[in-house]
Amino acid sequence: MIPVRVSFAVDFSTDRTSNTRKAALWSLAARVADLLPEASKLDIASALYARERLGTTAMGGGVALPHTVLTDEDASMIVVRRLERPVEFDAPDGMAVDTLVALMGGKHDIKWLRAALLRLGRLAQQGPLRHQLRMAATQNEVAAILIELGLDVHFDQKLCNTGGDFRSEGRAGLGLIGSAQHFTAVR
What we know:
Elements: E1 7-15, H1 21-35, H2 41-54, E2 58-60, E3 63-64, E4 67-69, E5 77-87, E6 97-105, H3 110-121, H4 127-135, H5 139-148, E7 152-154, H6 168-173, E8 176-177, E9 182-185
Helix pairs in contact: 1-2
């Protein structure tokens, strides 16, 4: 069986107000609802809270990987939120979380969501890459890190209208091929 690749829309933004885990997840749900107007902020937040009740999504090193399955129609996306105020997430290392790397997608591609979680989970072992992600200041920098982890990412203008494009020399320097809005790592 040949696996089908899933490309994830990427969004990057800053949360300047949250000071608790619940507030950070609510703010994340609000951002996703802004990106997917047909999605309910309350439903997204409830799903994120329910997942977090199963066990913390904090991986340590200041990063958490909240994730949930949305409806069948929803696109796969990775929403990276920088928390201006680090919040307690019951991380294994006790470190407060300042970066949320949220993975969301429709029920139709749940296998790929699991594969993406495995790739994102590499951040726990790759301290320098995790640090780069925590320090990233632009959507382009975030996308480059996700690509380095082996994810296929793109900027969907409908979903992610806050980021810029990689310039062609930037794509080449990162070992990327594709259009200005869709990037795949060259292996």
